[in-house]
Please model this.
Amino acid sequence: MRKNLVKNINSTVSKFDDYRMRVLILASGDLWAGAEVMVYQLVCGLKEFDSMEIQVVLFNDGRLAEKLKNNRVDVRILNEAQQSIPILVKKLYTLVKEFSPHIIHSHRYKENLLAWLVTRAMRRIRLVATQHGMPETAGEKQTYKGSLRSGLFFYLLSLGFQKTIVVSQEMRSLLLGKYGFSKKKLEVIHNGILLPPEFEKTVSGSYLVGSAGRLFPVKGYDFFIEVAVKVIRMNEHVQFVIAGDGPEQKRLERMIGDFGLRNQFTLIGHVDDMSGFYGDLDVYVNTSVHEGIPMSVLEAMGHYLPVIVPNVGGFPEIVEDGENGYLVVERDADLFAQKILGLVDSDRRKKMANSARKRVEKNFSRNTMAEKYYQLYGKLFS
Model:
């Protein structure tokens, strides 16, 4: 399949000034969160196509830059903290002129705007953006200022970009209905991960329930703590853990203390060895108010973990309820607690764990994601 795909793309790009299709990836790189993980996985997947040349421009020198450089990716850093926006635009313009990409693929709002600005005089460059999620309001009504800003950015995408990629069908429906996108400018490409090697998930006498992500309001970790309270009241041997850091940490620590859970609920902060983290868990839980296609849930499933998630965003496109996890329809702590306690049964847990792994292998691999982006780049020249 890949050989035929490469052949088709090669014939498409042959009308340009050289054989290799050049793609510039534009991202912030300030965090190591879902969008950054997806960018890393995508770039590593695209590197396998010999007919492409990739350059990555980041506005921060952080973990994403380090990991890409370690994989021999051409990375350029324009440190946004050390220069004004006009200088940033000028330097990005210079890089774009030097690399002369056929496509600029940007991620997040500011990067989308800068990509559009620097290509006003270079109309042959096609613009692609990936929308990783919807504006984060943690379930609250968006402010007028926030709503105006989101509307302007989506207006820019709908008119100034050849393609906007969304990571779930649910997001596609929102952009079509609320923000006036045309169907031909929207494409759904699910996120993908590099699967860990197959291994036998052992069942121990303990029962550890975990989650991972930025400690931000939209992740709903205060609700996760409320769920833990319900579970521990019925089974005091269950342990809970969250990997990640962020501005909500102190507030969440106070909640854990106020509920008397310090011996059973731990915030372990940033974790480098996420494979080890997933390997220690028995069940993975996500309590976000909204998500697209979260990389952490895909990673958990790839590590043979059944997942319990709310029935929002792109989750119904990942999880088959009762097969590889549970979709909880209502944001009700008792319902989440029931699902967690139901998986104390090790046989049921193991069956779901194996199903979760197979689900990701079939539908959410890094190679599958990279091939779909590669094919989309080629279509822009047809």
